[in-house]
Every structure is written in structure tokens, then in C-alpha cells.
Amino acid sequence: MFNEVDVVRTTAVLTFLLAAGIAVVKPQAALGLLLGGLMSVLTLRLMIIDATRLLQLARTVRLSKRDVSRFNRKSFLKRCALYAATLGAAAASPHLNYLAAFFGLLMPRLAIVYHMLQGRIKGGT
Questions:
Q1: Close Cβ partners of 67 (under 8 Å, ≥ 6 residues apart)
Q2: What is the rounded distance in angstroms from the CA atom of residue 71 to the CA atom of residue 61?
Q3: How far is the C-alpha of 84 from the C-alpha of 19, rounded, in Å?
Q4: In this predicted structure, what is the pLDDT of residue 124?
């Protein structure tokens, strides 16, 4: 089984390897992929920190559904703001490829699929 640290590590490695491979052919795409991939690592790490903080808070204080909903909404809006800033910077800069930055933001999903397939191959199911 894999955990969030494995996904963060795999996302970072995939981002750097793909960006290095693409840099030879299209430097703008490599920079966009690097920006999107690193921002996805940051937002994934932020989600892990927020979830851990919510769980620790729930252990010490009784939280209502409204408090939990408010906490989750704030966390989601922070991540959305980071995604918007990434895509806005990629769209505004002539040195970055917008689509590559978008695909860089999808890197954690690729890392999760990789770990799921790797577990199925090792587990035999």
C-alpha cells in the first residue's frame, strides 16, 4: 500500500524527469510542466497539512458539521487560488506553455495511478 508521502515523492520525480525530457525539444513546455508539477506538489502537501490539522483538532475539540464544512471550504479555496495563480501565470507569460502547466497540475493523479498499478502488479490482483 502507498501513502501520501509516496505520491508527493513520485509526483516530484515525474515532474523533473518529464520536464528534463521535454526541455530538449520545447523549453516553454518544460517550464510550464515544471511550474504546474511543482505547484501540484505544493497543493497536495497543503491538502495533507490541512487534513492532518483537522484530524488533530477533531481529537481535542468537539467540532460541529458547520465548523468542519467551513474548514474544508477554506482549504479548498486556498488550493483553487493556487491553481488559478498557476494557470494565470502560465497564460500571461510567453515563456510558459499553458497546456503543459495544466498537465503538470494533473501529475498527482498520474502518480496515484502509477502506485495503484504497481500495487496490483506486486499484489498479484
A1: none
A2: 14
A3: 21
A4: 64
Pull the grid cell for residue 104. Answer: 503538470
For 37-91, the pLDDT digits (tens) are: 999 999 999 999 999 999 999 899 998 999 999 999 999 999 999 999 999 999 9
Amino acid at 42: L
DSSP the chain: ---HHHHHHHHHHHHHHHHHHHHTT-HHHHHHHHHHHHHHHHHHHHHHHHHHHHHHHHHHS---HHHHHHHHHHHHHHHHHHHHHHHHHHHH-TTS-HHHHHHHHTHHHHHHHHHHHHHHHHHT-
Q: Model-level pTM?
A: 0.86
The Cβ of residue 45 has, within 10 Å, a number of other Cβ atoms equal to: 14
